[in-house]
Amino acid sequence: MLKYPNIDPIALQIGPLAIRWYSLAYITGILAGWWYAGKMNGRAQFINQKQFDAILSWIVVGLILGGRLGYVIFYNTAYFLHHPVEIFYLWQGGMSFHGGMTGTVLAIYFFCRKYKMQFFPVMDIAACVSPIGLGLGRLANFINGELYGRPTTSAFGMIFPNSDGQPRFPSQLLEASLEGFTMFVVLSVLFWRFNKWKNPGFLCGAFLVCYGIFRIIAECLREPDAQLGYFFQYITMGQILCIPMLLLGIYLIAWSRRRNVTA
Predict the structure, then answer these.
(1) pLDDT by residue (tens digit) across 74-133?
(2) SS3 of 214, please?
(3) Three-state DSSP class for residue 102
(4) pTM of the prediction?
(5) How many CB atoms sit inside 10 A of residue 48's CB?
(6) Phi, psi angles (nearest 5°) of residue 5
(7) Which residues 6+ apart lie within 8 Å of 146 measured at CB?
(8) In this structure, what DSSP letter does residue 19 have?
(9) Distance CA 217, CA 196 (A)
(10) Among 239, 256, 249, which Cα is nearest to 98's?
């Protein structure tokens, strides 16, 4: 059995101000993603510098609002119906990837519509940088001792604080490696080596397919949310939400390839 490192969730405390690793993960993910997006845009030239600088605030708002509302709607509706004010308590945690992705997509869509830009080229860059934030977010989940795995008797088991004391699989680290590192490498190779940015929509599709597969795999080892449990005895909410992602991703890849052939 592995020993849980018990890292303090608070990275820095200055008087009453507490800066948590989870907040740093969000900030670092946004800034690192922004830097990497600039590198990719320098290659593909999808968007001019003024528009590139302006879109960041749209994405941040869409990400945070979508992530929070997604958690409220998909994962804890009953609780927030009785405690609606706590929807705004972002510092208490509770964000949904699927909601954050939806909010980001809508923000980019309305931005592109306002400035009369093509939607998919911008989305392709956003898809390529997303694994940075995803990987860092899963590492922050591990530090917080939350969203851990199911009970296990394997050598990879850990006893997480505030759990039931059973050794559990560190599913956050699996998700960080799959949804973060592996997906980042795959999308980077497709962008830089195979020039898939020339097929608008392909990288979005690849992101959706990769994330859907990786999340479904990880959910097989992750403890489902206590307030939801399993659907049909085996399926989790995360897996259900990944099914339409997979189908849409496959469609986008086929659509982008067909569009490139007929262009």
Answers:
(1) 888 888 888 888 888 776 667 888 899 999 999 999 999 999 999 999 999 999 999 999
(2) helix
(3) helix
(4) 0.91
(5) 12
(6) -70, -15
(7) 93, 172
(8) E
(9) 26
(10) 239
